Amino acid sequence: MLILPWSLSESSAGLGWLPYTLPDVYGIVMFVLAPLGPALAAITVTAVIEGRSGVRRLLGRIKRWRVGLRWYVIALFGFLFAYIAGYVAVLGADPLTALFDNWPLFFTVFLPLVVLGIFIPSIGEEPGWRGFALPRLQERYGPVWGSLILGTLVGLYHTPAFFTPFLGPITISEFVMFQLTAIAATFIYTWVFNGSGGNLLIVILLHAAGNAASGLLTGVFADLPYGGWAATIIDGGALNVIVFSTIAVLLIVLTGGRLSYRAEEQKDP
Prior knowledge:
The chain is mostly helical. It is 71% helix and 0% strand. The protein has one domain (65-266). Helix 3 packs across helix 6 (105-141) and helix 4 (69-91) crosses helix 11.
């Protein structure tokens, strides 16, 4: 919400709904600071209800680096492979050819974006989403309904940014596609978080790598020739919804609706 005053103002990138202006530097600074909101909220509420020991346990989840290698592989490459699979399903071999021709971008674009994404926005968001909210939602509503609720909140949280040049402007249909993608992706986050024993470091990496994959592939696939129904699915955002929803349904079915949730593993040591 820190970016909302800029979005609604008469500033150069604002909507002009409120009669004041703010310098563009405010919007840039707030865009950097805004992702800290979920973490700061989680730390504040945890401090109130559990004290310093609760905050230490919450933040201690980030230091749990000892987890199976497969979870690092899934976190780093999971979304990348999912995006690629979706494009290949729609466009055939062209995306693979484009990736092969631009393979150095994996090192010059993808990996640097992962490192950057760890700090902006992942480390500021995940302590709130997965560190604080998800364990409580799962305990009360179970992993499926808990993920559905959290995914809806995560999607709505990004709404103010769509009124800025950073993530917007977007149409109503594009916003709906984003919201549905956020909900579907949350089931994947839940499965990774639960499967890795409530590990925050892994979901921080997953978040950063997911954003990096989107940034990489958007550039690599920008010049691919496609039109008709493919353009409708890809440019309208429906492809992401289809891909992530398919993965989410498979995870729900294959885990019997548990998404690898084990209540005892959500307890902090």
